Amino acid sequence: MTDPLPSSEVAAGINGLRAYLVITMPDCLPYSAWTRAGSDISVEDSAGYFGDLVRANRQGLKSVGAWSADMQVTIEASDTLVVLRELNDHFVCCAMYDRNTALGLLRLQLKSLVDRIMAGLPQLDVEERPRAVRVIEFLERYAPDPHAVLLRVSTRTGIPLASLRDPLVLNPDQVRSLEETAARILGLEHINV
Amino acid sequence: MSYHGRSRNRDRCGSGVNLTLDTSCTDRRAFRTDLPTGTNVDDVAKGLAQATGADRVASVPGVISLRIGRDEVVLVARTGRVQIRVDAEIVRHERRLRAESLFVFLLQAVRAADVNNR
Amino acid sequence: MSRFSQFATLLEPYDLTFLAGTPYVYHCHHFNLFHDQTIDDAVGEKAGFELRARAARDAFVPLLQALFERLGATTAAEKVDIAQDLFASMGQGRLAIELGPDGTVRGRGAHLHYGFAWREKYGERVKRAFPADAVAAGLVAAVAELTAQSAGPWTASETQCVGMRAPACEISGKQGDSHGRRRVADQAAFERYLGESTGGLHEETISAIADGLQGFVRGASGDDRGLMQAFNVFVTQHFSSYYADTGFAAVKLVEAVSPAVAGSCEELLREAGHVCVFNTFGNILMSPEWEGMVGPLKGDAEEIVQGCAAIARGLGFGRWAIAEHEPGKRLVLRTQSNYEATSWLERYGKATHPRCYFMQGAAVAFMVLATRVDWAERPKLTQAYYDNLFRGKGLGFKMQSPRCLTMGDRETEIVVEAV
Predict the structure, then answer these.
(1) What subunits make at least 3 CB pairs under 8 angstroms with B?
(2) Does the beta carbon of B1 lie under 8 angstroms from any beta carbon of chain A?
(3) Residue C59 to residue C181: CA distance in whole angstroms
(4) Mean pLDDT on C293-315
(5) Structural domain harbouring C167
(6) What is the mean pLDDT of residues C116-145?
(7) Which of the four, B59, B99, C25, C81, has the lowest number of CB atoms within 10 Å?
(8) B97 is in which domain, residue-wise?
(9) What is the ipTM of this complex?
(10) HEC profile for C343-365?
(11) What CATH number has the domain bearing residue C102?
């Protein structure tokens, strides 16, 4: 699929940048991405996991009344600095830098990166995908034994496997049942998608 | 440092013998090294057992299995392959360290066996 | 080697194993956790625990009775000692059982196989909300019944579980069980349903490897924690009736309550066969023990399929024989006895469709390992690699079972073909 942003131009000249992703929310899918040559970053996986992290962070901050729209998270991993920055309601930027990048420089460069991304983002309302689709994607990302998770949901809920593979056909009761089962499989009180 | 890529996980520890992450279905518990061709595996096993106080436990024919505490070192007589198995209760990030500490004893046993054979 | 291995017998030429007349096999923690999870998916966690604990108890009672007699145990203390030792030697974990003066029976252990292995495999990913150690509960119930003054079966529940992040598992027995105790398929039952053993291709090679593996696993035993670590997995010596009776009860319940999704439950039982072959068989094939016994793995399809058939025999699954093998295209496996069929026939009579689910799944996995794994690259048997092989765009093979022991046929035949 063609990247909707000129990603090489967006990333050009930013020292220490290993990759950037623009992630759609709440679906956690990659909208635009650039990775440095030789990098083995999985764009889809990163978008999924870091998108979920932002979502959890939003919920956590809201629960203590501390959320603001310009929230930013910095993760100092062993060989990478990851910065997650909310762009607007529908997009999040995830920028990954070499670990030895100075934080001051990083902040300056991040501003430049975000400005370039914002200039290319569409001004439209993003349509949310059906909840059942998002619950199943969440399950496939986090459930133990993801290879068997649809069979497990089918056995637990009584919903035929074919319907789970085409979640748009599920009726509201089935979606509720799917969601309760997903929470139970994951050991959560409810699914936050 | 990542130990997942084969090209990145070879550590030189002397004697031309390397310790790498071996195949294992549980995370970072099995490490592999191959003894230099011509090494007397029996002598290495004896030296290792002596240095560590390891117990020899039953295994299949052609394989020497040493239990060191709850860790295990398995040596294949005909190929010189050695697998160091770190106990599951060692937390993940310390498993390699544990394997390396056993690897040091193994290297000493290899050198001793080499000297004895000369 | 434990003091119980003297009572282990091999039923020739079927590669079926018995301990004091009780059938057993070896399975790893990946399979065990997946199997139990499937039971809970089918009947719910609470009912699943009870079903599994009963299945374990119903196998422990006759086994312990036989061992008490053979080892001359007459006092309660002697019986408890044997039960604890047996459990640990099976790799199920060290469980301290306490008979209270007021008739209470409790068990405690920090390294019970299921809870411990669950925490090791899934603990960082999922928060477990219900206990895992139904097999230990089954042992506690069995010991309670065999040492109590009054007759009748007991049940037991797990009040704390390591899998739920408790420091130790705690199990508590309770007298009485409205379900009663059921007889499990013993050696005599297996002998009733034996077809004539015919063997297959490469018999000499397969038998020699299987013999070596049988000798090795028979000598293996739990460590000081009662855990058995071999081939980079946690192994258990376990009752074949536990797997068969709980699996079949689960699928029968789904067939009765939600027939539309019975196929999903059956597929999960087959998937357990994939899980077992990928993890246990895969690790055995790449192990130094295999290298020492058979030689370094070259990785051609013939070698892998023959090796897998030998491993199945070595673990006590029955004499799985290769009737046909065209690498990458077709595999036909046959057996004249296995634990699934005997349990099914004892419980339900002849089936209307093939029910050897585990063997069906395993046969497909043989072909996947033989054709899609680059063994020379020494792959790491991770969850991601499993997903890559067994999930997504299809396995690349279809399976059918034209004959099945559960249907009263003289053998189970499984045909796997490339699609």
Answers:
(1) A, C
(2) yes
(3) 10
(4) 96
(5) 22-175
(6) 95
(7) C81
(8) 11-117
(9) 0.94
(10) HHHHHHCCCCCCCCHHHHHHHHH
(11) 3.90.1520.10
